[in-house]
């Protein structure tokens, strides 16, 4: 596989170099609103799909061109390295699509092509007002009615909800007492009657998240991902890719942001250069760890609690780079209206949550201590 990946990387670099005029429209990562950012991402995905590069690494029967999944990782790496921000939609697609392909291949064949073109963006509906980290406590209900499920309830903290067409939704099909054994996952079209989406505005002023309400929403039973009651297994399978493929996309993005910071720093500032060196080392640790995890997933391995290490490294590195930008460019960071500084501020606000969403850093460290290192319990 190494030769295949290396050859693919060389061809991709050649294409990027030869297509700079067409790619120039997709270089900016400065957007005034979340809606504008997602719309720009969809246009870029369409361009990558039509060129063929956005299809490599995805199964042919689901709109792709085949090849090992790591070809997707090469695309994200090379785009960011060349200065072209990877569309945000790929982050969630890399998290969810492997689970849909694994548990519902027929459904994936129908809906993944539209996601790859950027026309039918997916969102992830897990968290609820009283069920964030404890998904087994969720109450969004789905009851079977003939060839449909009827869904009622609420989801919150839905990333990219404002630009999505579909939402992979974890619902309760069993009794409340059944906890994680009574969960199922449905792919629900957000334009279905009875669905209401309300944007949630971040501190940066962007509608980064959304609440989604379901009022007796009828969903075809063939939108079930896995079997009824298999939602917890789907969610746990999906979690691996949130630590692996998603983290790889983010590390490529962090590398581009760090490169920007390096270019803005004078070589005579010894303190700043030392700080940049520390950030580079942190990024390399993240890259090596995430790359290893991505390769294991591509090989079909089932990963365990050790992937919590990836989550801790990702959140901390993400925050460290933006914190460095704040301290090293403090005046411009705080007061400038230039696109570059507006982008830095938006990134900084985003990273405040990077050690919370997808599993808080404190919980991840506890998992590492208990289940990876086997450390004694506090007070033991």
Outline the structure in words:
The chain has 380 residues and is of the alpha+beta class. The chain has 13 helices and seven strands. The strands form two sheets. Strands 2-3-7-6 form a four-stranded antiparallel β-sheet, with no helix packed on it. Strands 1-4-5 form a three-stranded mixed β-sheet, with helices on one face. Strand 2 and strand 3 form a beta hairpin. Keywords: FAD, Flavoprotein, Oxidoreductase.
CATH topology of the largest domain, which one?
Butyryl-CoA Dehydrogenase, subunit A, domain 3
What kind of sheet is the major sheet? 4 strands, antiparallel
Quaternary state of the chains: single chain
Average predicted confidence as pLDDT: 93
Question: Helical region count?
Answer: 13
Our measurement of the CA-to-CA distance between the termini, rounded to an integer number of angstroms, reads 48 Å
At CATH level 2, the architecture of the largest domain is: Up-down Bundle
- Spatial order of strands in the largest sheet: 2-3-7-6
Q: What are the secondary-structure elements, in order, as H or E?
A: HHHHHHEEEEEEEHHHHHHH
Number of domains: 3
Q: What does the overall shape look like?
A: globular
Which structural class do you get from the secondary structure elements? Answer: alpha+beta
Radius of gyration: 21 Å
Question: Could you name the CATH class of the largest domain?
Answer: Mainly Alpha
